[in-house]
Design a protein that fits this description.
By secondary structure, this protein is of the alpha+beta class. The chain has 1 helix and 13 strands, in the order E-E-H-E-E-E-E-E-E-E-E-E-E-E. The chain has a single domain, classed as minor pseudopilin epsh domain (minor pseudopilin epsh fold, 3-Layer(bab) Sandwich). The longest helix is centred in the N-terminal third of the chain and has 52 residues.
């Protein structure tokens, strides 16, 4: 886009604008900057996904404790891992009466009542790992049997750990120190 003006036939002409070479250099600089920014944006997006799943699990642990006290009934939180993803179920009834199948669907016995199902697909590159299969929150004071910890981890990245005490309270930390805002476990 070059615009040239001729003010008088004997004077030199003035050209104002950018050349094709200048335009190509600018586009190359923009392409280099974008190639650096896109992986960082994907990493930020994955970190937010990890935080969202960890916060959802924290809320569900607190809800299970509240539900047990409010209903005056035991509430179970059952964890399972499958090739297609990770699953946890919140339910009443006996401890083993609800399970997740390989696609993340809840299967419950007739006497059990499903409160919540959460499925984290393997395609999200985030996995849930619990050192216990079931946490049972008791009606009396919300205590929990089978205390344990649940790791929410990004594939090859940071991990967030929720540790559930016998009193049913949850403490959050980062086992590998990968999440700077959390204390190291």
């Amino acid at each position: 886009m070059v615009k040239c003006t001729f003010s008088h036939p004997t004077q030199r002409h003035r050209c104002v604008g950018i050349s094709l070479i200048e335009l190509c250099v600018c586009l190359a600089v923009i392409a280099i900057l974008l190639s650096q920014a896109l992986p960082a944006m994907e990493q930020l997006k994955q970190g937010q996904r990890l935080d969202l799943i960890a916060q959802t699990l924290m809320t569900d642990l607190q809800q299970a404790r509240s539900e047990a006290v409010q209903r005056a009934d035991t509430v179970h939180l059952r964890f399972s891992r499958h090739a297609q993803g990770s699953c946890y179920l919140m339910h009443t009834g006996e401890s083993g009466q609800c399970t997740c199948d390989d696609s993340g669907q809840a299967l419950c016995a007739a006497t059990a009542r499903l409160i919540k199902r959460e499925w984290v697909a393997a395609s999200q590159r985030i996995a849930l790992r619990s050192n216990v299969n079931t946490m049972s929150f008791q009606a009396r004071q919300g205590t929990v049997t089978s205390t344990g910890s649940i790791d929410i981890s990004d594939s090859g990245g940071p991990t967030i750990r929720h540790i559930v005490s016998i009193a049913g309270r949850v403490r959050t930390c980062s086992p590998n120190g990968g999440v700077t805002r959390l204390p190291t476990c």
